[in-house]
Design brief:
- The complex is a heterodimer of chains A (about 80) and B (about 160).
- Chain A is an all-alpha fold and about 80 residues long.
- Chain A has one domain.
- Helices cover about 80% and strands about 0% of the residues of chain A.
- The mean pLDDT of chain B is about 90.
- Chain B is built from two helices and ten strands.
- Chain B is elongated, with a radius of gyration of 28 Å.
- Chain B has two domains: about 45 residues; about 100 residues, Rieske Iron-sulfur Protein (3-layer Sandwich).
- Chain B is of the alpha+beta class.
- Chain B has a six-stranded antiparallel beta sheet, with no helix packed on it.
- The termini of chain B are far apart.
- Helices cover about 20% and strands about 30% of the residues of chain B.
- In chain B, strand 6 and strand 7 form a beta hairpin.
- The chains are: A mainly alpha (about 80), B alpha+beta (about 160).
- At the A-B interface, helix 1 and helix 2 of A face helix 2 of B.
């Protein structure tokens, strides 16, 4: 069952999640810069991998919610 | 619509709500995801730069004689190049420590404060321990790079840098 109300709530929730992921990525970039300047190179690779994973998560969330929205627009509310 | 019917405040605030551009949640989500991709790219770039910048091999070089620095005083020198100011500190017990003289906050030159065995940055009131270079007060968060020194007879020789 997919309704416009569900879509709206889902979009808001995903937006908050993506924003949270971006904030974490900002923190990771700041940490990576600090580690690079202090030559703590063991931090750099995990930081880059974590940032990439967060991006994949954000892109996945965006793809999911956009496809949900398009399904809703194409088929209309179901289960009514 | 003529100016006569427009209230005066409309001239100061000419933007109409219904004509204003609103960013939808979908657009905002796309922009945030784009920003997420950019941040991931920046992080990878930082990792590549950091991993490719290996510390250079630095030559061993005599920096001073043991008798040149009295206990409780310090001596300035340059190592490994003439562009790298450093400070050699001898505490009251006779122990030698050497650090980069460049503050890790905003690169001001630090000075030795023998009274409390610290290295102070006069620019922003930063302070480092003169024993291990760890920041103890003020804005610096990273410790000072340590210059590895060896005592060879009556000479003090710098042999490397620990960042």
């Amino acid at each position: 069952m997919e309704t416009p109300q569900q879509g709206s709530t889902l979009f808001s929730a995903v937006l908050v999640l993506i924003a949270t992921l971006v904030v974490i990525q900002l923190w990771l970039v700041a940490t990576a810069v600090d580690a690079m300047l202090s030559r703590q190179i063991e931090v750099l690779l995990p930081s880059a991998i974590a940032s990439g994973v967060l991006f994949v998560l954000a892109a996945g969330l965006l793809g999911y919610v956009v496809s949900f929205d398009e399904r809703l627009r194409h088929w209309g509310p179901r289960g009514r | 619509m003529s100016d006569r019917t427009e209230p005066r405040w409309r001239q100061d605030f000419p933007v109409r709500w219904d004509e204003d551009h609103y960013m939808t949640r979908r657009e905002l989500a796309k922009f945030l995801t784009l920003g997420s991709g950019l941040l991931a790219g920046v992080n990878v770039l930082i990792a590549l730069i950091g991993l490719s910048n290996r510390p250079p091999d630095v030559p061993a070089r005599r920096i001073a004689g043991v008798g040149d620095v009295a206990p409780g005083t310090s001596l300035l020198f340059r190592y490994p190049t003439l562009e790298d100011p450093c400070i050699l500190v001898r505490d009251a017990s006779g122990r030698f420590d050497a650090f980069s003289q460049v503050c890790t906050h905003l690169s001001c030159a630090i000075v030795h404060v023998p009274e409390d065995e610290s290295l102070a940055c006069p620019c922003h009131k930063g302070s480092f321990s003169a024993r291990d270079g760890v920041p103890t007060a003020g804005p610096p968060t990273r410790r000072l790079p340590r210059i590895v020194i060896e005592r060879r007879g009556e000479d003090l020789v710098a042999t490397g840098i620990e960042v």
